[in-house]
Amino acid sequence: MEKSCRPAGRRDAVETRTADPSDRASLEEDDTVELRVPDRERKLLHKIDEALAPIERGTYGWCDETGEAIGSARLIAWPTATLTVAAQQRREHRKRFTG
Asked: Taking the domains of the chain in order of start, what are their residue ranges?
């Protein structure tokens, strides 16, 4: 991914040159998006690593809770699934009632 080449004091410089609040708001939004993208990429890489771990262990496609096969339809729809549909529903039900 490309990193921004903007100087650290860019916002201060823009605010002194840009009197229009809409322009400033747009530039601030650009800055916010630039800060969020690396965080999203880091989280995505973490999720990819988590998804690869069961493959490496030889447990991909098997429910973490019951040990049953998850089923190809579920894995096609949700490749990172670690629970069968029934196990996922039980977990969500427990979470709903226990907080």
From this structure: 8-60, 61-99
DSSP string, 41-70: HHHHHHHHHHHHHHHHHT-TTB-TTT--B-
- pLDDT tens for 17-30 read 567 777 777 777 77
Hey, what are 79's tokens?
A: 């490749």
Tokens of 93: 């039900």
The pTM is what?
0.54
> How many Å apart are CA 65 and CA 89, to the nearest integer?
12
**Residue 47 main-chain phi, psi, to 5 deg:** -65, -35
Determine the pLDDT at residue 12.
53
Closest by CA to 62, choosing from 92, 86, 83, 77, is 83
